Amino acid sequence: MIFKPNMIVLITNGRLAGKKAAVVKELENNMLLLAGISRTPEESPDYLPAWQKRRNMKFVTFIKKINMKHVLATRYKADVGLDALSAEKSPEDINSRAALNQEANKILKSAFEAKKAKWLFTKLQF
Question: Is residue 91 a contact partner of residue 34, using CB atoms and an 8 Å limit?
Fold first, then answer.
């Protein structure tokens, strides 16, 4: 298929439209399991209150099962270690999806801090 593990894709439909994600694995019936970034940390000015600084420093990820028609393939690969995500956990079960998201958050946050796959963590320019 055109989508391979660790390929960076753009989501074109839904509430996550315009977000970047990496393919974790290809599922049956033209579905993909994606791990992506909803929000990256931003620097905050000193005059902001502490709660706004904490909010700006959050690193938010998502795990999503999505149809191939709603994804745009790119030429970029992200070798950040998403292969280590547990294969026995199902994305349909809410508890295991939360556990998968926590694992993906740790992996992607460490890649962000190590400056791996830089294009994955930059905003799209429109």
Answer: no
What is the number of domains present in the chain?
Answer: 1
pLDDT in tens, 40-75: 888 999 999 999 999 999 999 999 999 999 999 999
Domain that includes residue 108, residue range: 7-121
Share of the chain above pLDDT 70, in %: 94
Mean residue pLDDT across the chain: 89
What are the DSSP calls for the chain, one per residue?
----TTEEEEE-SSTTTT-EEEEEEEETTTEEEEEEEEE------TTS-HHHHHHHT--EEEEEEEEGGGEEEEEEE--SSGGGS-SSS-TTSHHHHHHHHHHHHHHHHHHHHTT-SGGGGSPPP-
Q: Does 1 map to a domain?
A: no
For residue 2, being part of any structural domain is answered with: no
Q: Give the CATH number for residue 67.
A: 2.30.30.770
